[in-house]
């Protein structure tokens, strides 16, 4: 696991964007695994600016997203499809039909999850998977305490995740209670992993991810077993590491 320590959020965003940009330049038909949340917003802004300057071309890129709320429509501004559209897809020359987010409008969970997993397989797997991390160490929506699940599946969100994500909704009661998420296996099959984290509220989770035992209690700890992981985090998020 390679850890890149940055001064602040801006530097974290630039360094992480540089890694994704290198992937796009070196392999223009890459499959990018993407993530939502407030952490990657800055790096998507950086990528959009590089595209504007003519430094990046997304015309042969495919993307697959980590997760999506179950029972949310794509035009709901809290859906992850909406987030991706707003922060990246509408800003670069990616072909809409080459972007895949789990289908939150599909009520049949098995169908939605199998379809997402099938897309990833059909594309030949993920070249680089971007990850944020939940305050409780979750990745995607793989919550603590459950076994490591192999494939995309439906999960019940924990109270702490619902509370953490309530900031994006009008009230906590509006936060969906379930989500479709890539499994730990899906994530681990990506050739490379790029995890971004900022802020003190992530320090404990990041410390346990990098330095603690590998356990389903801290889902991100499984990344210790992946051969190609880069963590880009600011000083605050790394404050519990020496
Ligand atoms: C959500 C997402 C995760 C994300 C996490 C952290 O629960 N499912 O993919 O990493 O939130 O979000 P933030 O970056 O806003 O702290």
Can I get a quick summary?
Helices cover 31% and strands 17% of the residues. It is α/β, with parallel strands linked by helices.
Q: What's the rounded overall pLDDT mean?
A: 96
Main sheet specs? 7 strands, parallel
Which kinds of small molecule does this entry bind, naming each only once?
2-amino-2-deoxy-6-O-phosphono-alpha-D-glucopyranose
Distance between the termini: 15 Å
Report helical residue fraction: 25-40%
Number of helices: 7
Backbone CA Rg: 17 Å
Physical arrangement of strands within the biggest beta sheet: 1-10-9-6-2-3-5
**Which oligomeric form is depicted?**
single chain
- SSE order in H/E notation? EHEHEEHEHEEHEHEHE
- Hey, roughly how much beta strand do the residues contain? 15-25%
Shape: globular
Secondary-structure-based class equals alpha/beta
Count of strand segments: 10
Low-pLDDT parts are none
Task: Describe, in plain words, how this protein is organized in 3D.
Helix 7 links the parallel strand 9 (192-197) and strand 10. A 7-stranded parallel sheet has the order 1-10-9-6-2-3-5, sandwiched between helices. The two termini are 15 Å apart. Helix 1 packs across helix 2 (41-52). With 242 residues, the protein is α/β, with parallel strands linked by helices. The protein is built from 7 helices and 10 strands. The radius of gyration is 17 Å and the shape is globular. Bound molecules: 2-amino-2-deoxy-6-O-phosphono-alpha-D-glucopyranose. 2-amino-2-deoxy-6-O-phosphono-alpha-D-glucopyranose binds next to helix 5.
């Amino acid at each position: 696991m390679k850890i890149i320590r940055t001064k602040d959020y801006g530097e974290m965003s630039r360094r992480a964007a540089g890694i994704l940009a290198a992937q796009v330049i070196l392999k223009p038909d890459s499959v990018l695994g993407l993530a939502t949340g407030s952490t990657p917003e800055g790096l998507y802004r950086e990528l959009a600016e590089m595209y504007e300057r003519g430094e990046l071309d997304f015309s042969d890129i495919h993307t697959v997203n980590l997760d999506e709320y179950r029972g949310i429509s794509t035009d709901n501004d809290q859906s992850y499809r909406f987030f991706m559209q707003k922060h990246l897809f509408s800003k670069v020359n990616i072909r809409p039909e080459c972007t895949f987010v789990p289908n939150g409008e599909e009520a049949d969970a098995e169908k939605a999850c199998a379809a997402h997993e099938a897309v990833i397989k059909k594309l030949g797997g993920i070249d680089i998977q971007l990850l944020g991390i939940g305050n409780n160490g979750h990745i995607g929506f793989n919550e603590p305490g459950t076994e490591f699940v192999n494939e995309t599946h439906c999960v019940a969100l924990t109270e702490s995740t619902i509370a953490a994500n309530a900031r994006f909704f009008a009230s906590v009661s509006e936060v969906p209670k379930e989500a479709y998420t890539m499994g730990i296996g899906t994530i681990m099959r990506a050739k490379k992993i790029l995890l971004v984290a900022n802020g003190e509220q992530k320090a404990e989770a990041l410390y346990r991810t990098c330095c603690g035992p590998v356990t389903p209690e801290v889902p991100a700890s499984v990344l210790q077993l992946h051969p190609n992981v880069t963590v880009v985090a600011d000083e605050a998020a790394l404050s519990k590491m020496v």
